Amino acid sequence: MATGALAATPAAADAAAPRHAAAAAYPGPGHVTGDVRMHDPSFVKRPDGGYLVAHTGNDLALKTSADRTAFSNAGVAFPGGAPWTSPYTGGARNLWAPHLSHHNGRYHLYYSASTFGSNRSAIFLATSTSGDSGTWRDEGLVVESFTSDDFNAIDPHLQVDGQGRWWLAFGSFWSGIKMVRIDPATGKRYDGALHAIAGRGGGAIEAPTLFHRGGWYYLFVSFDLCCRGADSTYRVMVGRSRSITGPYHDRAGTAMTSGGGTEVLAGHGGVHGPGHQDVFADTDSDILAYHYYADDGTALLGVNWLGWDSSGWPYVH
Which among 13, 119, 168, 266 could bridge 317 via Cys, Cβ 3.0 to 4.6 Å? Predict the structure, then answer.
């Protein structure tokens, strides 16, 4: 199983974890093999075992793994293309930043359609009973943004709260991270409410990931810049709230709507710009998955164990 470079048990690593790890102290990504070139990975554990991964790529790229270590190409979600996204992509087939989940016997795939630097964007939903290439059914538009809006409808993440309500977080740059409630029956918006949950006053923030643990909702985001190869400055930040709609605060008490965020992982050594993270519970540990850039600019999958200190804040090991 892929774990961090520190080969301690989770319990031992918890006890030894510093309250604030310096960048130089971050462990390297765990050992992974096979087809591990990817941006914006999203994992789901398959009911029959193993993992399905979706990531940015033409027609939405898919990978599979039996053990979270060896990964294989599993084709694309839409082999015939996704022409319904063309008004947002300008006809390009590259679709971004998907989020995978599994509910009631069906895989749900939220994904982004846009062009670089534009907030004329949309999030769509597709579903499948198997998750296999070519089996995904277009369920249509979920949320869109216009150039007149102060938000950007990309980077979706679906989270079910403790009351069984569905929520979709999303956002990139502009005024930051937003959230809408989702109707479980349709996968579409439940109402017109738009919640603001994080922002940096127009600065670089995107890729929200929600994770529920110990009565807290944790909001992981990526600060700074992606997609510049080894010059990328992405880093993973976090805050938490007792309510899924916020307010979220970092360890120092700063609101995430005011630029707050506690660093979880940043570039170190030959790991450049780690970010667009996914967080999920597995049998051996909670897991942080992300992409990073090698020295030659190749985008690669990173997978680490995610530990929690005595105050309930996450750290990578």
Answer: 13
